[in-house]
Amino acid sequence: MNVRWALREIRAGAALQVCLALLVAILATTALAGPPLLDRWAGSALGQRVTRAQEDGPLLVHSTTASPPMQDAFFDDTGQGDDPMSAGVLADQLNRVSRAIRDKAPEPLRGRLRPGPVSIELPSAALPVPVGADSARASRLSLLYASDAPGAPSYTQGRPPGKAPALDPKEKLPVEIAVSEATGRALGLTVGTRTKLSDRGFDADVVVVGIFRSAEGRSPVSRRQPSLDGPLQEEIGGVTIQHATALLDPTGMEVLQRRNRIDFTVIWRIKVDLPERAAVDTVVHGGLPALRRAAGRYQQNAELGLCETVRSDPFCAMGQNLVTPLQTVNQLTPVFDRFATQQVQARSLSSFAIAGLLAVALGTVAVAARLAVRRRRTADLLQRARGATALDVTRARLLEMAPAVLVGAAAGYGITRLLLPGSAALPYGYALAVTALAWAAVPLLTWISVREQAPRRRRGRSDGAGLAQNRRLLAEAAVVLVAVASVAALRSRGAGESAGGVDPQLAAVPVLLGLVAVMVLARLYPLPLRSLAARARRSRGPVGFLALARTGRAAAGHGLALLVLILTLATAVFGGLVADTVSQGREQAAAWNAGGDAVVVDNTPPPAESPGTATVGVDTGDDPAARTLSRIKGVERVVSVRQATASLAGATDGRFRDPVDLVGVDSAALQRAAPGSAAARALRDAEIGGSAAGPLPVLASADVAKAYAGKTLALGELRGATVSVRIVGALPAAAGRDPALGPVRADAHAPLLLADVRSLGALQPTDITHRALLLYGHDLDAAALRAAAQRTVGPTAQVVLHADELNRLRKDGLLTSVLDAYAVCGALGILLALLAVILELLLTADERARTAAYLRMLGLGGRPVALLHFLELLPLAVAAAVGGTALGLLLPAALGPALNLGEFTGGPTAPVLHTDYGLTTLLTLGLGALVLAAVAIDAVRGRRRNLGSVLRLGETLA
């Protein structure tokens, strides 16, 4: 009988069945597709990051030094021994080792590695000074083998150096080299020129066989070795030295090494091939931890691969040279580690949005279930009167809801497969949980509605009401305690991640806080309504009084709709806050990383005696790098910034402690280039100029200034002369975060001493750990800047453009996935909230229709009745707008450390939370307008009802 009855009821409630199926489909799709879709977005972001990180060169660099054996066991004095390994085997050995160190990578990294460029460089040697040449100029030439050197099409004259018969080591003939056009013009080298290189025991006869076009820093090899495009100039003791690089073949490298018995360093650069599709598969299938472990173990494996490949007992040799253990520079592991840390934060924030959407959908299901139970209540009570138990009626409702739930779950699964084709692991547990809750809503409310009420009736109405009130208080207290405990635990531990990739505690916080907000509003907003109703009682018309009185009595009945509206608006407001904070944080981070419109940084200057580099000096009064960069098209101002790390001596005992960053900035130039600069303004107000006489006047960060204000202290851990500083005042917080200081400050939280750069004359160049030239202007030519920086500052120069840095931050796929999650969940939440309001109106439609009919029968017109309905639900819209907005604005304070947006933006400090008040106002007004529009449509529809359709003869209005 229950089955036949359930089928009949299904046909009667087809509209609610369709509504339930739609809601279950949304729930199942969100639970099934949400976490995997976040993984796909994260995987795409990982692929983009690896690709972007390799734009300036491979992330894995191996090097070894090859030396001739102490005993000439391999070759005789002619350079040609009895050993089968003779001249010409080096290139083959390089390729074999390159394959071996790639194949030694642990899985799954092994399949991701691709061959990169291999290079060998010999020390630079002096070129002979031509007869009659300027004695104030000298030239040095380095010899380089690079597997990615310019090919034959790049040669304008001659050919690339190769294994010609002239390279036979027995013949003592010159080694073939090739130079760029700029190098040939500067050094007077043409095809056929034969010259001799010499330097401290190194002698090499070379002949120029080819001239190639300069790449101007556009090719990888020229970016690594800028002196290959043209000579770099350096002034030492009034002599201008030109440092250039020429190309040669590995065979020529072998011949020179044998003749001069010198060491050379071999460098293998390994590329990581991780396209977006492969990165998505890695993240979706949980392969990122294994990839991180493999990257961490790779260095040891690669070292074993070197000796296993080139070993010639009893030596570890390459060709006929002993090699040192392989050294590896691994920049891949930091990329993976930073991404893994940020992914935890991204998943936490995204799960916050997904949990809010699921809560809104479940709340809408509860409103639909209330409507279904209300419409079936008469039939349910009739079944009870015919002898059916409450459990029988509940089972019938369970069967009645089954088709809608199954159809919705199947639709959700199908949509998930369309969105995520071929996804291996789906979170079926989450989907089953929310589907079961949706299925149980109607049966559970039905059981509550029809269960036996006799014991309560025997206790009396007052006793029953008191018991219900006590139960409600206990339930509300439990919800408040759980919410407070969850927030406290979340703030103490920060963001986390479960095995399924979702932080359940963080995901539950919005729902718990939404419940608390609903409970508070449900108890508070009837109070002003009663006061207004008392005033309306004394007014002439009955509409206001009736609307306010009915709203105050029905406040508790609108709790579910209020919860849905509050959660929807809170999630949307919080998403807008995240988006606005991230947007401003990216602006600050880009400005901090670039300093100005662009910056040229030399973070690792070589020693002063190292050839080939024109280091930026401390005194910028006659800085050749600044002069050269100022002539680049678009550059209007150049500002010099320097940084040294030292220890600050105590004022009483003189012991060195408290490491500080001593930063010097050209305050006058900075004031002209950036009039709003806080650092320049602070130096100007303190009257700190460029005098280098006596102790250096500095502004100190707040903690240092508080301890040593007005005192003169010595700086320790400097390699130059002893330097003293005089702390003339405290550095404003805004000046410590000035973007001009960003390129030279590795730690924005370290204690800071700020001085004028022209007063750092007492410091030696070796004391300066970071050098930067800030560039200001419009339409800066990035390629020209990089080429000029490499020629004047050195090969370690790094050029950062503000526009490029900002574009990189804006296109970060991981952060975009978080913002997309909030956008999608917010849009779906608004639609569900509108559906919940419509269902709430349908739930109370009969009661409102009877009230309207009764009032119309007493002579009230249609417009006042419509106004009555409008005013009746107006407080609900206002309460939802106020509660949702307040909850969305308070969520960041509740989350605390779990909301760390600085992981995405970078910059000196975590970005200050910014509320997008325009978006918040628009969302609040928009959601309120949707609610009131639904109410207005319902009121217009109610005006068309016939009195006889809602009232019966003899019926009284309660």
UniProtKB/TrEMBL annotation:
UniProt cross-references to InterPro entries, sorted A to Z: Lipoprotein-release_system
Keyword Heme: no
Keyword Membrane: yes
Membrane-crossing residue ranges in chain numbering: 352-373, 394-416, 428-450, 471-490, 505-525, 560-579, 821-845, 866-891, 917-937
Keywords in alphabetical order: Membrane, Transmembrane, Transmembrane helix
GO biological process: lipoprotein localization to outer membrane
Annotated region (Disordered), positions in chain: 149-168
GO cellular component terms, semicolon-separated: plasma membrane protein complex
PANTHER family associated with the record: LIPOPROTEIN-RELEASING SYSTEM TRANSMEMBRANE PROTEIN LOLE (PTHR30489)
Name of the molecule in the record: ABC transport system permease protein
Organism for this UniProt entry: Streptomyces beijiangensis
